[in-house]
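Appendix B. Chain record.
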Amino acid sequence: MSGYLILSRLFFGALFVAGACSDPVALPAPGAGSFDFSGCGSLVESSAGGIYTYFKAGTPEPLVVASRSADGFISWSKSLPSLFGSCEAAVGGSGNLLFATTDSLYSLNAQNGAIRWRFRTGNYVQIATSSTGMVFLSRSAFLPDTAAVVYALSGNDGSVIWSRTVYTPGAIGLFVDDARSALYAVRGKGAIAMDLATGNVKWETTQGLDYGAVAAIAADGSLVVAKSNTAPGASSIHGPYTGAIESFGTDGALRWRVPLDLRPPDGSPVIDDAGTVYLAAGFEVFPQYGAAVYAFSVATGGLKWKHEFLRIHSDIAVDADRTVYVIAQAAADSAYQLYGLRDGAIVSAVMPVAADYPVTMTIHSNKLLYYKTPSKIGFIPSAGASPNAAWPVGRHDAKRSAHR
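Structure tokens predicted for this chain:
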């Protein structure tokens, strides 16, 4: 696949949103664009301000890791000896690239893609890193009462520092708070806080979930968790769903809980530099139940604002101007657009590159907001992520470290 830039005039247009706000809708600034991308994969920021992606080129070709300039041109690529990826990638504390497949975690040299080490997992994994250079991964279990394993690895050679078995259904999301030496494992039946150095359990919640949960770490060290539950009387794992957003203190005590009548998405909550946590609920996969972006107080859980959509097509990100970005459909007769929300009102709207699902977003240090679909990666200028934001994008930052 050759990376190339498609000028913004080919796919961006100013779109008026009738009745959405009284002010004119902002136009995308010069510098917007997109490039082709095929398949499942993550987009992470390089040390030079470019990006890394990986993708499956097509059966039976292997996974391909690519280093790109900010606008998508490939500088080098590397094939991995695996056929399927788990869509997880990150940049480690040592600067090495971390890419997960369905059977292994690879550490690559960031300059040329050479494989430094490989850790065989045998199952789907999620990744988090520490500023000390440690790498954490979860090998998930998908059946009740089966073992999922959390590993702590050396970032230098992939050797196991410690491991812990957790019995839980579903995937386990990992989140690191370096300041408090805590690793949070958010799972299908609660959350566990472990010591980074030893894996010893600090606290554990057992509040039941029957679908899943996603999380973010606030500036005060509290863990904010958004979760889904099957609605009462529902017999199918496909819904309908309700949900909730909760906050746990550094001692594991429940600080507050807000029930939701919509299903939270797979993307995590995001937290700005002013103590506000944002959450999108009602993903495209369940369009019949409506959708909304919420803003809550991190301290109390109080609702600050709510903006409703017909469907939401992406996770969300918040920039230094406290603009929350989401790809959504406002009404049945309108197109999907990339909206910017501030204080609950629409301040910008542009046409996204593609309407395929799902879409993930991140804000890089070059102040470009990237949004990735299974076929395109688009970008527009933004105010950039605030250096004081607790959790501005999913997985915390553009390097997808899942730590703060």
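Further analysis of this model is presented in Appendix C.
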